[in-house]
Design goal:
With about 270 residues, this protein is of the alpha+beta class. Helices cover about 35% and strands about 25% of the residues. It folds into 2 domains: about 130 residues, AhpD-like (Up-down Bundle); about 120 residues, Jelly Rolls (Sandwich), CATH 2.60.120.10. The protein contains 9 helices and 15 strands. A hairpin with a 5-residue loop joins strand 3 and strand 4. Helix 4 runs parallel beside helix 6 and helix 6 runs antiparallel to helix 7. About 30% of the residues are buried. Keywords: Signal. One of its GO terms (molecular function) is peroxiredoxin activity.
Length: about 270
């Protein structure tokens, strides 16, 4: 049997609860998958590899065993589902997002750059949900050319969640980059003008929403252009699971002003897919 298949079977998620020192790890993947076809292999996988080798935590802890296993797989160029399972196990065994990044970077110099690239793709998925707070903000900043800017404190009362504002240009046409954290949106509002006026939005990064009163919400992605005439009640903001940024262009007009209205309710917002 090819080594990739052996390692893939060995990599099935460990069927156990919290593992204390010297406690035997319970694994049934071998018997579940190959019990009838290769009973001896199934026995070795479940009882020896996991039941004995991985369970020798008094000799080498689970965290270190995960590190050794990940290094071995990446070094051989094995970046299939077996690596994904062992990355997941490594996370369960206490290896952090910062540590796995440093581990794979170190491996790259000894095992090869392409192998590290492939491993990073899987590691990002496994540790994706750990990116929060300032770390998430910094990661989003790397996705776009315009700055996130400073907290939008002047208009905070008209937003649910945290938004940021960065002036891009104040000459000829005022342009601002507006960034929303996941779930952040502004209140319903209307751009007023006796002539001209309104606003134009251009998606920069992430995923967001724009909605006019009485119409379905429109998804905004990088490059999406939204034209908002004066006098139209609307709102815009981030998707629930994504940071979002758009450029906002103020359209020249006479007697322009913003009329801020009620917040977008959680019930309304939760209906968006």
């Amino acid at each position: 049997m090819k080594i990739q298949m052996v390692l893939a079977l060995a990599a099935w998620v460990i069927n156990s609860t919290t593992i204390m020192a010297q406690e035997t790890i319970k694994q049934t993947a071998g018997r579940d998958q190959l019990g009838d076809f290769a009973p001896k292999f199934a026995e070795l996988n479940d009882d020896v590899l996991f039941g004995e080798v991985w369970s020798r935590t008094d000799k080498l802890g689970l965290r270190d065993r995960s590190l050794v296993t990940i290094t071995s797989l990446i070094s051989q160029g094995i970046t299939d589902s077996s690596l994904t399972y062992h990355l997941q196990t490594a996370k369960q065994n206490g290896i952090t997002r910062t540590e796995i990044s440093e581990i794979i970077t170190h491996i790259a110099f000894y095992a090869g750059w392409p192998k590290a690239w492939a491993a990073f793709r899987q590691a990002k998925e496994v540790w994706a949900e750990d990116i929060t707070g300032e770390e998430a903000k910094a990661a989003f900043q790397r996705e776009m050319i315009f700055p996130i800017g400073e907290p939008n404190t002047a208009f905070a009362q008209y937003f649910i969640g945290q938004s940021y504002l960065a002036p891009v240009s104040k000459e000829q046409v005022p342009v601002f980059n507006v960034t929303f954290e996941p779930g952040c949106r502004n209140n319903w509002h209307i751009h007023r003008a006796t002539k001209g006026g309104g606003q134009m939005l251009i998606g920069v990064a992430g995923r967001g929403w724009y909605q006019e009163e009485g119409k379905p919400a429109v998804q905004i992605l990088p490059g999406t252009v939204i034209h908002i005439p004066a006098g139209v009640k609307h709102w815009h903001g981030a998707a629930a699971d994504s940071w979002f940024a758009h450029l906002a262009f103020e359209v020249e007009g006479e007697n322009t002003s913003n009329e801020w209205l009620e917040p977008v309710s959680d019930e309304e917002y939760s209906k968006l897919q």
